[in-house]
């Protein structure tokens, strides 16, 4: 028997290298297949993107008479959630094609969640010239798109409903959409007239074509609003506070009917003067219907709380607004207006709070605290320490400079800082100065910027110590307070009697 001839060492080494190389290629191909089929391509490409499935996703259906669930059932498809979502979105886009808002040739943009079913569905029905972005994936998702890039833009419930700055979002949609193009938005949030009006105000540079309700993802999902807008030539209204650009030209708010309904549903004003106001008003706080407890305050640009006569941080901000006011998880910017220097130090290290160390007034001028000039220094310190100083007076009425403070035009300041699309809450405790500030707010139209107010009205109330004796500290009557509250409600402000 012949002995096998041994293979040369170099040939054996070559075979080993070939096998290792083949194995490495197989590993790379398997990895590539995984990346393509599971992870998708990056959103850095304008062409197409979808992302790892890691987020629970909510999705809307179309307005067709055949529900997406029926589409799936008729097709007898057994699908995982992401595949079902693609089927639902395919139904949505096919319906929009049938209505003439979308075509296969449209250059389109989908704004949705990081799992990307919207853009996948759009591609699968034949709209190949399309891109997808996720607001959770990027802080500036629109930056790579030029002006007037798209003829069709779609925002799912993972789009507008999740955005932190809705005005900026609306502006970017307007910028990237072509004239004559359509913007379709799905939202679960606009379930009351207030929030729906806020949403429509966001997109007032567009023409609204259609507003309808459509089914949710399944029978347990809430109804979804489908709103279709069109971008027309010559319409652009993103200039904030355009109604206030001409100084005091606006003197009366245009109060929509839904605001009147909200105010009508609020707690009624206490019409009869209470004999023990310190008890009656405290009890009435339990009856207060906060605006965010009645409506959705989404779709506002920024959220602001202004404490006028803030006094200590804990009194107006820490123990009340921070803990008790229903903010719906919105990030409020806080302004504390307090002229009494006794309280200034505690605001120095409070994050998110801007202290204005002045007195809110009807114009910019020097003011004085109205304190008993015969009071001892000990009593003066006690009065200043509590923050219960009487109403400020114009410098023309005083010659002493001991309690000099700087007053500023609060109405003018509010109009310079707050935008029409902001949500603004004001708490006012100014020791009688409200009878000057509120008329000034109404006169200038600045009152139109305030959504909700908590007002402590100061009048010659009955004293605790002495039955049937009124406080000499204030000259205004309870009837005048009621007139003040009524004027605010007539101007569309949900104002509450506060203590």
From TrEMBL:
Q: Which UniProt keywords apply?
A: Membrane, Transmembrane, Transmembrane helix
Output the InterPro entries linked to this UniProt entry: DUF7870, SAM-dependent_MTases_sf
Determine the domain of life of the protein's source. Eukaryota
Annotated DUF7870 domain ranges read: 264-362, 404-499
Q: Write down the species.
A: Olea europaea subsp. europaea
Matches recorded under Gene3D superfamilies: Vaccinia Virus protein VP39
GTP-binding recorded as keyword = no
| Name of the protein | Protein NtpR
Segments spanning the bilayer are 12-34
């Amino acid at each position: 028997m012949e002995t096998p001839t041994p293979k040369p060492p170099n040939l054996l080494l070559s075979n080993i290298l070939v096998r290792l190389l083949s194995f490495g290629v197989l590993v790379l191909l398997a990895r590539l297949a995984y990346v393509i089929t599971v992870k998708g391509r990056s959103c850095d490409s304008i062409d197409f993107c979808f992302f790892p499935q890691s987020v629970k996703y909510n999705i809307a259906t179309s307005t067709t008479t055949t529900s997406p669930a029926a589409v799936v059932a008729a097709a007898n498809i057994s699908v995982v959630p992401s595949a079902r979502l693609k089927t639902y979105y395919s139904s949505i886009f096919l319906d929009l094609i049938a209505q003439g808002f979308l075509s296969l040739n449209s250059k389109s943009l989908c704004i949705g969640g990081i799992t990307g079913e919207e853009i996948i569905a759009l591609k699968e029905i034949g709209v190949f010239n399309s891109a997808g972005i996720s607001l959770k994936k990027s802080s500036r998702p629109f930056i790579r798109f030029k002006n007037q890039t798209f003829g069709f833009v779609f925002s799912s419930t993972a789009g507008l409903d999740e955005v932190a700055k809705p005005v900026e979002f609306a502006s970017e949609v307007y910028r990237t959409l072509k004239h004559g193009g359509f913007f379709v938005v799905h939202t679960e949030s606009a379930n009351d007239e207030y929030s729906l009006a806020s949403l429509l105000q966001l997109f007032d540079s567009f023409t609204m074509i259609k507003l309808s309700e459509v089914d949710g993802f399944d029978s347990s999902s809430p109804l979804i609003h489908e709103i279709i807008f069109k971008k027309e030539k010559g319409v652009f209204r993103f200039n904030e506070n355009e109604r206030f650009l001409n100084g005091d030209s606006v003197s009366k708010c245009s109060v929509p009917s839904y605001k009147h309904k909200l105010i009508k549903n609020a707690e009624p004003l206490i019409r009869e003067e209470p004999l023990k106001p310190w008890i009656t008003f405290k009890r009435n706080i339990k009856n207060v219907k906060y605006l965010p407890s009645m409506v959705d305050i989404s779709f506002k640009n920024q959220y602001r709380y202004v404490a006028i006569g803030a006094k200590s941080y804990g009194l107006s901000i820490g123990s009340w607004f921070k803990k008790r006011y229903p903010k719906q998880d919105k990030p409020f910017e806080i302004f504390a207006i307090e002229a009494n220097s006794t309280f200034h130090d505690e605001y120095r290290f409070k994050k998110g709070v801007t202290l204005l160390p002045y007195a809110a007034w009807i114009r910019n001028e020097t003011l004085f605290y109205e304190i008993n000039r015969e009071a001892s220094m000990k009593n003066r310190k006690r009065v200043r320490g509590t923050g219960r100083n009487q109403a400020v007076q114009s410098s023309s009425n005083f010659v002493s400079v001991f309690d000099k403070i700087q007053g500023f035009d609060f109405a003018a300041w509010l109009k310079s800082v707050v935008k029409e699309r902001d949500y603004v809450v004001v708490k006012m405790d100014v020791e009688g100065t409200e009878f000057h500030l509120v008329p000034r707010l109404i006169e200038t139209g600045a009152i139109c910027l305030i959504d909700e107010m908590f007002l402590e009205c100061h009048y010659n109330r009955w004293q605790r110590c002495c039955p049937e004796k009124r406080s000499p500290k204030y000259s205004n009557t309870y009837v005048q307070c009621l007139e003040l509250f009524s004027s605010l409600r007539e101007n569309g402000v949900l104002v509450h009697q506060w203590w």
